[in-house]
Each structure stands twice: as structure tokens, then as C-alpha cells.
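Exercise 7b. C-alpha cells:
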């Protein structure tokens, strides 16, 4: 029984709250003149308008037939009309005014104001960061319908080795900082920024690209010259850095039978690394018996040279010709070209 009384009380309070939010507007009909007072009203959905005859032979009728006080009368009649739908509704007295003229008026029901909310946008939807670096992106908060609360942010979907932080949380903007470690995962991934304010939550996807860290050293023409391993003095490389990223390396060495043997590495370079196909040549004779038409060039394998600075490098080779094995060795500079500086 007690619970039932509480339920009834709760329902009563809810109804009271609903009615408290609505408003009743008064319109006086006639009286000292042939007019409605006021003749125009702007109300909210759920409001009511009460028409009262203030004196005279009048009635009130909707221009579209939605409501009517009945036939014109001198009695002190009243008519209460609820307005729940947005729009403009005209009314008039059938005796003293036609729609739009004479004794006429209108009620404008304004649309319901949407609840406060916010939107999110980014200065860059595709930020890019290199391993070991950081990048910032401005996140703009767009208030809507009077929103003025603070927004807090978080980020999800971060690739391995990348962290996110936000500064200046507030009602207008925040700065997102993305920090990539030296070993952060390289590639493109979708990072989702989430903005939260109370029960409101919105997300903003960003396409984050993590690039490999640039090499500490880049190949320049100044590394042109002779390179070798002192512990194996007697064979080595002549390196040439040419225009258009062309790279040549001549390896003067010996075959498995101890005969003089040389390879030509030809390819391109980027950053600190040159990648080449290696070729051997056969069929040649000592001049004057040399005949270029008898030279046969055969692909021997591949070579890669990586330079850590102007005086140190590592070479790796991978043969495809039987009888030779893959390997690598460190190199240091033996000679350089006069007038060509490095770096």
C-alpha cells in the first residue's frame, strides 16, 4: 500500500513538472475595439492560449479549422487551445474579420530548442610522425545549442611505440601530441580521438602514418674513392657516386682458384644505403687481342653497401653463381677525390 502511494506521488510530481514547463497565454477578444489583444503570439510547443471574450458580439475561429469557440456571442465565453506542433496558426472573428485582415491574429509555435551538444574536427586528419619524433594536431570543439562545458579527451588505436597526450582541455580546443619511440611500428593506422563531456561523447578518426627514422648519414658524392678492410689488404672496392642516384662499386678480388676476379656493382642509393646488382665479365683478351664483341656479362648476384659516415661502411653480398658464398665485411676509406668534400 505504501509503495502504491509512492508510485502515485511520483506520477503526480511528474505531471506537475510537465505542466510547470508549459505556459498558458491569454488573448482578449474585442472589448473597447475590434481587435485581439495581443493579435500575435510566439509560444513554445506544449503551451496553451486562452481566448476570452472581453465584450461584444464575437467568436474566434482557426483559419484552417483546427479550433473554434462556436458561433459569435456576447456572452463572456473562453476557449483554451493547446499548441503542440511547430508552425504559424492564424485565427479570426467570423463577424468582424477575415483571415489576414480586420479582427485577426496568429500564434507562432517555435521549434523545440535542441539540447546542447558539440562537434569535433582536426587541423589535420592525416598526421605524420617519424620514429623518435613527435607531431601535434589541433582538435577544435564546435559548441552547438549553447554548449559551454569542458571536454576531456582520450585516444585509442595507437600503434606500438606511439603515445598520445592532450593539453588545454576546454570548451574551444585541445592540442593532441603524438610521440613515437625510436622503435615505433612503421605504417598507417587509424587513431580514434574521443571527446567526452558528461553523458555526451563523440569520436574523431585520424589516419596516423609513422615513417622510419631518417638515417643519420646520407650518401653524398664525397664518399667516391677506394674502400677496403685493412685486415684483408689486397682486395677492395672503388666506389663512384654519380648523378641521378646512380651508384657503382668495382670489387677487385680473387675467385676460388686464386685468379684475379672483379665484379661490377651497379644500382641506386637512398639515404645511407646503395643497392646493386653485381655482374662478372668473361671473354676478354689482353690488348691488342681484345674484342668487345666477345665480352659476356653475367649477373653474379647482388651487393648492398651501407655507410655510417664518411669513412666507415659495411658491404653485404649474395651470389647466385655456384661456388661462391654469401657474406659481409666492414670497410674503411682508403682514398678520396681531391676537391670533393664529405659530407
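Sequence design result:
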Amino acid at each position: 500500500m505504501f509503495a502504491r502511494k509512492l508510485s502515485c506521488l511520483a506520477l503526480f510530481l511528474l505531471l506537475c513538472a510537465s505542466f510547470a514547463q508549459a505556459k498558458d497565454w491569454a488573448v482578449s477578444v474585442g472589448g473597447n475595439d475590434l481587435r485581439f489583444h495581443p493579435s500575435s503570439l510566439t509560444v513554445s510547443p506544449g503551451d496553451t492560449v486562452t481566448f476570452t471574450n472581453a465584450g461584444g458580439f464575437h467568436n474566434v475561429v482557426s483559419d484552417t479549422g483546427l479550433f473554434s469557440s462556436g458561433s459569435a456571442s456576447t456572452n463572456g465565453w473562453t476557449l483554451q487551445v493547446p499548441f503542440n506542433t511547430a508552425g504559424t496558426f492564424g485565427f479570426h472573428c467570423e463577424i468582424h474579420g477575415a483571415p489576414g485582415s480586420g479582427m485577426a491574429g496568429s500564434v507562432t509555435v517555435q521549434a523545440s530548442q535542441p539540447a546542447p551538444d558539440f562537434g569535433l574536427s582536426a587541423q589535420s586528419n592525416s598526421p605524420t610522425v617519424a620514429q623518435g619524433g613527435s607531431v601535434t594536431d589541433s582538435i577544435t570543439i564546435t559548441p552547438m545549442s549553447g554548449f559551454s562545458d569542458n571536454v576531456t579527451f582520450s585516444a585509442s588505436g595507437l600503434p606500438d611505440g606511439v603515445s598520445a597526450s592532450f593539453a588545454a582541455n576546454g570548451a574551444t580546443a585541445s592540442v593532441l601530441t603524438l610521440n613515437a619511440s625510436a622503435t615505433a611500428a612503421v605504417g598507417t593506422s587509424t587513431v580514434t580521438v574521443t571527446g567526452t563531456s558528461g553523458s555526451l561523447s563523440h569520436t574523431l578518426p585520424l589516419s596516423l602514418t609513422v615513417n622510419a627514422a631518417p638515417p643519420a648519414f646520407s650518401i653524398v658524392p664525397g664518399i667516391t674513392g677506394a674502400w677496403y678492410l685493412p685486415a684483408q689488404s689486397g682486395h677492395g672496392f672503388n666506389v663512384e657516386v654519380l648523378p641521378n642516384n646512380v651508384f657503382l662499386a668495382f670489387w677487385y678480388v680473387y675467385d676460388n682458384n686464386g685468379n684475379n676476379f672483379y665484379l661490377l656493382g651497379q644500382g641506386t642509393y637512398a639515404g645511407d644505403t646503395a643497392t646493386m646488382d653485381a655482374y662478372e665479365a668473361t671473354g676478354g683478351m689482353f690488348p691488342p687481342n681484345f674484342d668487345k664483341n666477345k665480352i659476356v656479362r653475367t649477373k653474379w648476384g647482388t651487393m648492398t653497401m651501407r655507410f655510417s659516415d664518411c669513412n666507415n661502411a659495411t658491404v653485404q653480398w649474395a651470389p647466385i653463381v655456384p661456388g661462391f658464398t654469401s657474406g659481409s665485411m666492414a670497410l674503411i676509406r682508403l682514398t678520396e677525390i681531391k676537391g670533393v668534400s664529405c659530407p
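Instructor comment: The longest helix spans residues 2-21. The chain has three domains: 22-109, 117-211, 221-333.
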